[in-house]
Amino acid sequence: MDIRWISSVLPHRYPFLLVDRVLEIEPGKSIRAYKNVTVNEEFFNGHFPGHPVMPGVMIIEGLAQAAGILTLHDREGRDEKLMYFTGIDKARFRRPVVPGDRLVYEVEILRLRQTYCRLRGIARVDDEIAAEATMASALVDR
Asked: Residue 16: which domain range?
């Protein structure tokens, strides 16, 4: 699933859209997607000049966007809904993410209700864990 399809599911746009492609999706269960990290990313201008490192909050946001695709992609009326973070637990950052990396997001649903979900996400670079977190989100009307 390419960027056009992703843009039909998520409301995010450049420079805040952090998912480039969906590799696998198992509805109601899990997703694998990725972001190609390039030196042209806006956040590298200030984080850090001369030593670009992707901010950890942006990695977690990418996981959340992958989670949004997983939970919204087949939901009826998705154009009228947004996913809001309600919690981030057990976030850990294991290695820096730098320009040239392919950041692979792996997200699984732990609990899914009509207006609430709890998910576990891992972000990897070359099969090495870069970050991980448990996330909670609420589904709200736009």
From this structure: 3-141
pTM for this prediction: 0.96
Q: CB 136: neighbour CB atoms within 10 A?
A: 17
Local confidence pLDDT in tens for the 142 residues of the chain: 899 999 999 999 999 999 999 999 999 999 999 999 999 999 999 999 999 999 999 999 999 999 999 999 988 888 898 999 999 999 999 999 999 999 999 999 999 999 999 999 999 999 999 999 999 999 999 8
CATH number at residue 92: 3.10.129.10
Catalytic residue among 12, 47, 51, 73: 47
Catalytic, 47? Answer yes
